[in-house]
Amino acid sequence: MAHDDMLTHLEAQLAGLREAGTYKVERELEGPQDADVVVGGREVIMLTSNNYLGLANHPRIRQAARDAIEEWGFGMASVRFICGTDSLHLELERRIAEFFEADAAILYTSCWNANEALFATILDEQDAVFSDELNHASIIDGIRLCKASRHRYPHADLGALADLLRKDHSRHRVVVTDGVFSMEGELADVPGLLELCEAERALLVVDDSHATGVLGPRGRGTAEEQGVHGRVPVTTGTLGKALGGAAGGFVTGPRAVVETLRQRSRPYLFSNALPPMIVAASLAAFDLLDEEPARVRRLRENTLWFRQALSERGFDVREGIHPVVPVIVGDTALAIRLSNELFERGVYVSGFGFPVVPQGEARLRCQISAAHSHEELERAVEAIAEVGASAGVIAA
C-alpha cells in the first residue's frame, strides 16, 4: 500500500521506545478514582492522580451529576452560542469569576482548549507574547496558534524577562506562566511577575490548573498562597483536577477579554458545550471547597509529612509545598522501572523522563491527596524506600 513506508517508520519508532524502556503503558482502573484504586483485581495506593482534594468519588459530586442528568439530560448537542447554554453554565461561570475576584469567566471543554483559545483570539501580528520556558504544553501549543511575535524567557528569570520586555515595542504584550509547574511542584513568583508587568504595561496570564483548590488558605490558588489574590488580570484553569477530576476548563478576567473570547475564540464557537452533569458536579465541588476548608489544610499536612519522610530517607526531593512531589532518580528507563516495581508493591506512581523533563532529571512524580490516610502514606514511603535502596538511588 502507498502508506506502507510511513507505517514501517512508525512501527520502528515504537519498537525503539520499547527497547529503551520508555514505552508508556495505560493501566486499566476497575473502579472509581480515589485514594486507592483497583487495578488487575487488586487494590493499590493511588499516588499519581490530580485528585488533590479527594473529590473525584465524593458522594455529593456523584449525586449532583445524577440530579443534573434527571433535570437537564445527558448532553447539550450544540455549541454554546447556538442552543448549548443552560442556566447551569451561566451559574458556573459566575461562580468561577467570584472565586477569582474577576469580572467574568468563560467555560471550555478543557484548560487545553482554554489556552488554545486565549492567545490566538486576543493577539495579532502587532502584538507579542512572553512565555516561561517550562510552561505546560497547552500554553506552548496555544501560543503557536497565535500570530503575535513569540518570546521564551529562561525559567522563572524575571531579570531576563524584564530585558525582553524593555527591548520590545509591540502594541500589546502578554506574559504567561504556569502558577505551578507540574513536573516540579514549583510555584511561579506571581507577585514579582505582577510588579514587572504593571511596570512594563504587559498583561499577565497565569494558568493555575495545579493550584486551584490546592494552594492558599481557601484553595484560591497560587495568587492567594502568595498574598496577591484578586490581582492577577487573567487566569486559565481546569475543573478536571482538584475540583472533581472530570473535565472542563475556563478563562477568567476582565469582561472585555471574556466577551471577546465568547465572540471569536474558535474552541468555544466550534466545540459542544460541557454536559450539564459535569457543570453541576463542578458547582458542587466549589460548594465543598467553601464548606470544608479542612480539606485544603489536610492536603497541606499530608504533603509536608510525605516530603519530609522521603527527604529523611535520603531521596533527592525538590523543595516545595505543593502536593506534586518529584523524587529525582536521574535515568528515564530507571524511573519507569521503579514505577513498575512500585506498582507490584501496591503503590501506583508514574515515572517521567526526557523529553518531558530535562535529560538526567528523570523522576518519580508523586501526587498527594487530602483523601490519603497517614497509614497509606507511610506504606507508600516504605515501598519507595525499598525500591530506591534496591536500585542504589539511596543507601540501603
- Identify the CATH architecture of the largest domain: 3-Layer(aba) Sandwich
**What coarse outline follows from CA principal-axis ratios?**
globular
Overall domain count: 2
Strand order of the largest sheet: 3-11-10-9-6-4-5
- How helix-rich are the residues, as a percent range? 40-55%
Sheet with most strands: 7 strands, mixed
Uncertain stretches of 5 or more adjacent residues: none
Secondary structure category: alpha/beta
Number of strands: 16
- Calculate the mean pLDDT score and round it: 95
Rg calculated over all Cα atoms: 22 Å
CATH topology of the largest domain: Aspartate Aminotransferase, domain 2
Distance between the termini: 56 Å
Count of alpha/pi helices: 15
Percent strand equals 15-25%
The CATH homologous superfamily of the largest domain is called Type I PLP-dependent aspartate aminotransferase-like (Major domain)
- Quick one: CATH class of the largest domain? Alpha Beta
Account of the protein in words:
Helix 4 (87-99) packs parallel to helix 12 (276-291) and helix 13 packs parallel to helix 15 (374-390). Strand 12 and strand 13 (324-330) form a beta hairpin. The protein starts with a helix and ends in a 6-residue tail after the last helix. The chain is built from 15 helices and 16 strands. With 396 residues, the chain is an alpha/beta fold. It has helices at residues 4-20, 59-72, 80-83, 87-99, 111-122, 137-144, 158-167, 190-200, 222-225, 255-264, 266-269, 276-291, 294-312, 332-344, 374-390; strands at 36-39, 42-46, 104-108, 128-132, 149-153, 173-178, 180-181, 186-187, 203-207, 234-238, 249-253, 316-317, 324-330, 347-348, 350-352, 362-367. The protein has a 7-stranded mixed β-sheet with strand order 3-11-10-9-6-4-5, with helices on both faces. A 4-stranded antiparallel β-sheet has the order 12-13-16-15, covered by helices on one side. A 3-stranded mixed β-sheet has the order 1-2-14. It has 2 domains: 22-52 and 293-390, Aspartate Aminotransferase, domain 1; 59-291, Aspartate Aminotransferase, domain 2 (3-Layer(aba) Sandwich), CATH 3.40.640.10. The model has no long low-confidence stretch (mean pLDDT 95).
